[in-house]
Amino acid sequence: MATKNAVVTGANQGIGLEIVRLIAQRPDVRTVLTARSEERGRAALAKLQAELPPAAAERVCFAQLDITSRDSIEGFRQWAERELRQVDVLINNAGFAYKGDTWGVEEAQTTINTNYAGTASVCEALNDLVPDGGRIVNVCSSAGKLSIIKDAALRDRWEHATSRAQLDELTHEFIEGVRSDTYAQKGWPRSMYGVSKLAECQYSRILADELRPRRIAVAAVCPGWCNTAMASFRGPRPASEGADTPVWLAFQPDSEWEWITGRFWKDRKEEPW
Ligand SMILES: NC(=O)c1ccc[n+]([C@@H]2O[C@H](COP(=O)([O-])OP(=O)(O)OC[C@H]3O[C@@H](n4cnc5c(N)ncnc54)[C@H](OP(=O)(O)O)[C@@H]3O)[C@@H](O)[C@H]2O)c1
Fold this sequence. Notes:
alpha/beta; Rossmann fold; binds NADP nicotinamide-adenine-dinucleotide phosphate; oxidoreductase
């Protein structure tokens, strides 16, 4: 019987869907496949349930969640409180990237709103439904490592940021740099996705510190270059391989929480931020 609940964001396709498929194999876990589109989410759930053994199919359900919508996050929170009571495992997988060399202020804002601010808003909204000893896994990216910032002073500010307000300020500076076309001389890379993922990574590190007193492990993970829509189906890895480390982190034994938390992971190994 399912005694734990797992919530996966952006799970109607790609790595998120494979994360749900992997967790569904665990008899003790009920998994919520969430998606911003009710139609795409329900279609993905129906297809997945048809592919799973009946007992596993019964342990998976759908709920709508658009991580950039305040109303949607609040609606999901109320649903989760009522239907799940607690979220033992939260996997923030939803993410977005423009294709090719798309570049602009609105585009930078949208990318940051989704990958960083959306993820942070979901964590903040669900945080108190995660029990002591729970797990939060953020699917970040190696594209968001500190080394993408070549300017030492700017990198130092990222590395030593201790609050969401400081991260908001840094992402705002990037957007203003894009607006005035001064981003390069101020030390920023030409990557909206990279900066959004850097902010998501650094937020994960800060959240891990905040939740340490409750023994909630918060881990950041890179799934590797996967064969998904985001990667225009050119990645060499199947999405199921990208799902492996997030699920592995989410279900490490309780005794391992301190080893997991506040770290960046790839292929079941720790890497520098
Ligand atoms: N693929 C790679 O090589 C790679 C490498 C490093 C990191 N990642 C990260 O891995 C995660 C999964 O990516 P993927 O490769 O599986 O890409 P994907 O197939 O494009 O899936 C992304 C998922 O996120 C959802 N999403 C986007 N915006 C959302 C929002 N506002 N609210 C809720 N869901 C939203 C998408 O929903 P729709 O279907 O409605 O668009 C989709 O379900 C992302 O965080 C990505 O940055 C991927």
